[in-house]
Specification:
It contains 10 helices and 18 strands. The chain has 349 residues and is α/β, with parallel strands linked by helices. The chain has 2 domains: 145 residues, 3-Layer(aba) Sandwich (Rossmann fold), CATH 3.40.50.150; 184 residues, Rossmann fold. The strands form 4 sheets. A 7-stranded mixed beta sheet has the order 3-2-1-4-5-7-6, with helices on both faces. Strands 12-11-10-13-16-18-17 form a 7-stranded mixed beta sheet. Strands 8-9 form a two-stranded antiparallel ribbon. Helix 3 runs parallel beside helix 4. The longest helix has 14 residues. One of its GO terms (molecular function) is rRNA (guanine-N2-)-methyltransferase activity.
Length: 349
């Protein structure tokens, strides 16, 4: 379990005052430590669908959004708990949000490790909140508590976190993205390699695909760049609220009919697809997790139609051929550039 959440659990397990929890991807295992039942004083907002689902299952009043929903503007609390995020604009955005949500005299409980910049964030937050930060070490984690005063200092620079902005083009159409999406301000080099090799990949298919799934779609690049595929139905799914917001906007802007689904690796999808495209994540919060690749491979195998195939691109250090061999009868490496490898997978076992 994340050591920061081990330190924060006393604030989350049985709060006796209205408590708000900003739960991002780092909270993926913390909810398991909460008992199932009523948590009358605890409300959680999460930008990760799996975290949101897990907290709902534990009986926590939870909301899934990109920390920008109108409901958040109406929430007031006495305590706000936040384990700092990996991305600076998001962390700044949520510290600013914390000031708005807390009652005067309320307490921000901020936690992180020294290498993650917790001391710097505590200093910035103390200026905004108009009071000194109390810092306490708990193993690798540092917990800081800061009291809100009416004398607000300057807001932290969140790079206009909530706003979509153009970052590239596909076929002359702008692609929009925002902070909060992994690799938000560029076209991912692995995804670009997959698209560069789309023609040889498509040549391996037994028939043109009628249905297409973009599994872990991000802001939608693979779907936007593969419109040459004449699929009758397109579905894009992601676990990240910021990615879904950008993808929906991009598909609408490109006048492309795509069903966008909030889901954890397509867990709730029941249909089968003739083609799945995927650039699976291998980071969760501050950590690197190779088992995320396993999760995406397993789900792709389950979601493929009988004659379906999957196009995967992964970092070259991930042993995808070995991982995929137990799930697919056909595992072909189609391209590689020293940094990423592109694979054709077919024949779910």
């Amino acid at each position: 379990m994340d050591p920061c959440y081990s330190a924060l659990l006393p604030y989350l397990t049985a709060p006796d005052r209205p408590t708000l929890w900003f739960a991002d991807e780092n909270a993926s295992t913390a909810g398991a430590r909460l008992q199932r039942g009523r948590h009358p004083y605890l409300t959680a907002f999460s930008n990760r669908y799996d975290v949101y689902q897990h907290l709902c299952d534990r009986g926590v009043r939870s909301h899934f959004c990109d920390f920008d929903c109108a409901l958040l503007d109406t929430v007031k609390c006495n305590i706000l708990v936040y384990r700092i995020s990996k991305e600076k604009p998001l962390t700044h955005h949520l510290i600013n949000r914390a000031y708005t949500c807390l009652e005067d005299g309320g307490t921000l409980v901020l936690c992180g490790e020294k290498s993650e910049g917790i001391k710097s964030y505590a200093k910035k937050a103390s200026v905004l909140f108009g009071s000194n930060a109390t810092l306490k070490k708990a193993g690798r984690a540092y917990i800081t508590t800061i009291t809100k005063t009416p004398a607000a200092g300057p807001r932290l620079d969140d790079q206009h976190y909530a706003e979509l902005r153009p970052i590239a083009q596909v076929g002359g159409t702008p692609i929009y993205s925002k902070p909060g999406v992994f690799g938000w301000n560029k076209i991912d080099a692995g995804s670009a390699l997959l698209i560069e090799n789309l023609a040889p990949l498509l040549a391996l298919l037994p028939a043109p695909p009628a249905t297409l799934l973009d599994l872990g779609c991000g802001y939608g690049y693979l779907t936007l760049a593969s419109t040459a595929i004449t699929a009758q139905r397109r579905v894009a799914t992601d676990n990240n609220a910021a990615a879904l917001k950008a993808a929906e906007y991009n598909f609408s802007n490109a006048r492309l009919a795509v069903s966008v689904v909030a889901d954890d690796c397509g867990a709730q999808l029941r249909e089968r697809f003739d083609l799945i495209v995927c650039n699976p994540p291998f980071h969760r919060g501050f950590g690197v997790e190779g088992d995320l690749t396993d999760k995406f491979l397993q789900r792709a195998a389950q979601l493929l139609s009988a004659q379906g195939a999957a196009f995967f691109v992964v970092n070259q250090f991930l042993p995808l051929q070995r991982k995929a061999a137990a799930l697919f009868t056909t595992v072909n490496k189609v391209a590689g550039n020293g940094s990423f490898n592109v694979f054709y997978l077919a024949g779910s076992r």
